[in-house]
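Researcher: Before we compare anything, I want clean individual predictions. No alignment, no superposition, just each chain on its own. First chain goes here; please echo the sequence and then give the structure tokens.
Model: Echoing the first chain and its structure:
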Amino acid sequence: MSTRRNRIFFASTLILAALLPVTGQKPAYTLYTGQGEPVSYKKMVRKCARADIILFGEEHNNPIAHWLQLELLKDLYEKKGEDLLAGAEMFEADNQLIMDEYFNGLITEKKFEEEMRLWNNYETDYKPLVEFAKENGIPFIATNIPRRYANSVYKLGLDTLNSFSQEAQKFMMPLALAYDTTLSAYAALYGGGPMGGHGGANLRDAQAVKDATMAHFILENYRSGKTFLHFHGRYHSDHYQGIYYFLKEQDPDLSIITISTSSQEEISSLEEGLEDTADFMIVVPGNMTKTY
């Protein structure tokens, strides 16, 4: 056989080997629909690209969720370009100015990180998102209520928000908050249940003001024709509650995709009881290394 034919044969063999399924591998995750059907990552990306808002619920220390957040941000940027926005629970609304100054090159990375009240796992889990957004001109919105205000609700009650100045109230949802306290996520905090809640109305309201504020700043920055990708703990959108609930209360016509993350001993199927948690479920082995 000639050298040229040898090369062609060798190249063809490599291509064939790449196309054949590899057996014996240990998958790092499996992706399911909300009904428990296996689904491809590419299909999820296609659906997300057609949505107005994507609510990506993570387990905060799950490395696979964080990796997929970055991959989804990159892939949506390829599809949406300047029509993509991002935002996250991990950044508080009163720090938006600092975020914007950093993105505009007006302050250094060191000063940005010193002043942003960053989560302890920022370096490993959220910095890649921020830096990709900065490098590619993707607006990044700090959506969460400043923690001091949520803490005041927990300590003193919902009405305490009325005592803050008008300047302070710019960093929270519109006051006179009304919401369905019977939703399972909030009811569990009030009187027990799967969340083990026993904090009463103040704990429930403190959670609701976070969800309502995140929804408020998502909508304040969203524009028709764009896609807003938001990152947060899964609790804030699981079962189409939390942020999802407040978004739909304000605009029922919004197209919203929800993603959630679950750790399971076996990932070959979705555990019973997780159906309808979200539109897409990322299922990760329970013994996966954690980021903290």
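Researcher: Okay. Second chain, same rules.
Model: Second chain and its structure:
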Amino acid sequence: MLRMPAFEVHLPATAEEAVALRARHARSMYVAGGTDLLVNLKHRLHEPEHLVSLARVEGLKGVDLAADGTLRIGAGVTLHDVATSPLIQREAPGLARAAGLVAGPQHRRMGTLGGNVMLDTRCLFYNQTPLWRESLGHCLKKQGDWCHVIGSRKSCVAAQSSDTVPALTALDARIELVDADGAREVALRDLFTKDGRFDHVHTVPHTALVTAVVVPPRPAGHRGTYRKVRARGSIDYPQLGVAVAAGFDGDVVTSLEVVIGAMLPQPKLLRHMDKAVGQRLTPELVEELAEHGFKQARPQAQIHGDPDWRRHMARVELRRALQEIAPA
């Protein structure tokens, strides 16, 4: 049986109080649903002496649609509620679908949207027991100085394995956060770096608290979806994720964004998708766009599944996603 390390739990009432507690205690972490964090504690991937619980923090819940179409979702909204909200299903169907594919139903009723956005990166050489990691000499992500995936000390390529992040990136979403400098917004596309280490992967301080996710107004005729490749039909993290967000005027594409996840420490926003603008999603165009996705996909061997097979599946799943959103 894996046991968690000893820690003290704090219960702040406001976001500002939570941030102040993180600043006061050097070895501390936030905990919301805990579906990922508590497992990591058992594996001693993190060893905080203090956990700052967000259970009683005001203002982290709620889903609101502004008059201009801006959708604001509290960071404390559970993934189950994101997946089943009629408002989110209507306004951001790709996000609702992505949230509904996270892990299993028990996890989705506990896990939060904010936690899924700020999910720690994963790697076959990292997400193991302490004895397993020690036998290998540790890795660049924790206690070591070598990335076993790429055979280099240059950077860690642990994968960003959130399902909601690709969908939100395709929607050009932003996060609201509070840190030592106060409240501000950060574009999700600017949040991630190319280094998968826990204290390097985000461009904001790891003490920053995400309070909400903001989705800007969608284009007219918005359609979106998310495709997930995993070993089993539930529970598993993605081996590959493909998010698509598009606008249509009748059956003509007016905008198209495609994001691939679970390949690298950051989601991959695909280039050359704008060639679909002004055209119908014919089988020939879908095939051309799927080929562009295949050429830009560069999975690493940091999660289960052969990288060449995962790259091939990027083409397959992008084709399926585009066929799914195409007007009948």
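Researcher: What stands out in the second chain?
Model: DSSP finds eleven helices and twelve strands in the chain. Additionally, The chain has a mean pLDDT of 97.
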